[in-house]
Amino acid sequence: MIFYVSNVLAINKLAEDIRVLEKKEKRIEYRKRMVEAEVIELQSAERICKIAEEKLNMVKSDEFPNILKKINE
């Protein structure tokens, strides 16, 4: 009988541990999605162009860049 009660308590403890870990996993997954969204926003061409123009005083060129050939070709 004591063995049975001990097993029930152990199983209940493990079930609670699983619930806690599942909640933690959901929080981590949510944070991961938030960070991924932030990375996409930070990598956006619009944001980079805006910073280049405002902080670095760069201007957009009207011409396309020239493609240079390698010397070894």
Keywords:
73 residues
Number of helical runs? 2
Structural class: mainly alpha
Share of helix, binned: 55-70%
Order of helices and strands: HH
Largest sheet: none
Uncertain runs: none
The percent range for strand residues is: under 5%
Mean pLDDT: 91
The radius of gyration computed from the alpha-carbon positions, rounded to a whole number of angstroms, is 28 Å
Q: In angstroms, what separates the terminal alpha carbons?
A: 85 Å
Described by the principal axes of the CA atoms, the overall outline is rod-shaped
Overview of the structural elements:
There is one protein chain. The protein is mainly α and 73 residues long. It has a domain at 30-54. The chain contains 2 helices and no strands. The protein starts with a helix and ends in a 19-residue tail after the last helix. The model has no long low-confidence stretch (mean pLDDT 91).
